[in-house]
Amino acid sequence: MELIFLGTGTSTGVPQLMCDCATCRSDDPRDKRLRASALVKVDGLNLLIDCGPDFRTQMLSYGDNGNLDALLITHSHYDHVGGVDDLRPYCTPDGFPLYCKADVAKDLRDRVPYCFAEHPYPGVPHYAIHKIDSEKPFFIKGVEITPLPVNHYKLEIVGFRIGKLAYITDAKRISRQTVKNVSGIDTLVINALRHEPHISHFSLSDALAFISEVSPRVAYLTHLSHQMGRHADVEPKLPENVRIAYDGMKIYI
Ligand SMILES: [Zn+2]
Ligand SMILES: [Zn+2]
Ligand SMILES: [Zn+2]
Fold first, then answer.
1. Has this prediction a pTM greater than 0.90?
2. Sign of CA dihedral 108, 109, 112, 115
3. What 8-state DSSP symbol labels residue 203?
4. What is the pLDDT of residues 67-116, one digit of tens each?
5. Which ligand is nearest to the CA of 151?
6. SS3 177
7. CA 221 to CA 113: how far, in whole Å?
8. CB proximity list for 209: less than 8 A, separation 6 or greater
9. Which domains does the chain have, with CATH numbers?
10. Is the separation of the CB atoms in 83 and 66 below 8 Å?
11. Which residues of 134-150 are buried (b: 16+ CB within 10 A; e: fewer)?
12. CA of 170 relative to ligand 3 center, distance in Å
């Protein structure tokens, strides 16, 4: 299995518009962070996790010119779904498969209602929505995927476990059940916004506490804000099994 980080930034991306801090001015490519998303290649399937407003740029830069078989959606915030209209080249007459919870499906119908019209305008994207239950594993062509419910302030959203990989973003609180579901996992991807606490996102110390509880072989931090600082300054201070992900980074699981 392979994972390509298509984006590792928080909702504003890095550099952030109108900011001239050291991170936003950095010329290290690892400090250029598009909105959080990942491409997982498993058993011949290309699964996209989240489809934010940078989707098209991300696929052109890091997508390996690959096909996509399905989109897994963690939640309906704009930085995770703002690019769904750009899925149109992947849509077939049966509809491009989207896997998400019922609340996300409802939000999508509100955001891009023209895609769900009874008589859609010619050429608009056509989706096939597969509603998932956050408590139940589901399958895409034989690949088992386990939703990992986590709390994002008041919103219950999901991460995904696929084999030895767990991908969780935008978490602020994680239930005992989800900790159990990822305990001892090989590769953990987890959000860490910045050093200071935040109401709806893990800070760096929240993420490190979760990592030490789960004890993965290796963990990658994603959904980073410019306030996290520069990759070259922060990563050397982290525990040995914790890396900071960057856009275009490819890992093998
Ligand atoms: Zn987000
Ligand atoms: Zn900045
Ligand atoms: Zn969010």
1. yes
2. positive
3. -
4. 999 999 999 999 999 999 999 999 998 999 999 999 999 999 999 999 99
5. 3
6. helix
7. 34
8. none
9. 2-15+23-250 (3.60.15.10)
10. no
11. beeebebeebebbbbbb
12. 5
CA 124/CA 87 separation, integer angstroms = 10
Q: What is the whole-number distance in angstroms between the Cα of residue 223 and the centre of ligand 1?
A: 7
> What is the helix (H) or strand (E) element at residue 212, kind and residue range?
helix 204-214
pLDDT of residue 64: 81
3-state secondary structure of 233: helix
Q: Give the number of whichever ligand sits closest to the CA of residue 19.
A: 2
Asked whether the beta carbons of 227 and 195 are under 8 A apart, the reply is: yes
Distance 58 CA to ligand 2 centre (A): 21
Ligand 1 centroid–CA 9 distance in Å is 8
Instruction: Indicate whether 65 pLDDT > 80.
Output: no
- Ligand 2 centre to CA of 154 (Å) is 27
pLDDT in tens, 36-58: 999 999 999 999 999 999 999 99
Q: Are strands 250-252 and 2-7 parallel, antiparallel or unpaired?
A: antiparallel
Give CA–CA dist 200/215, Å, rounded. 23
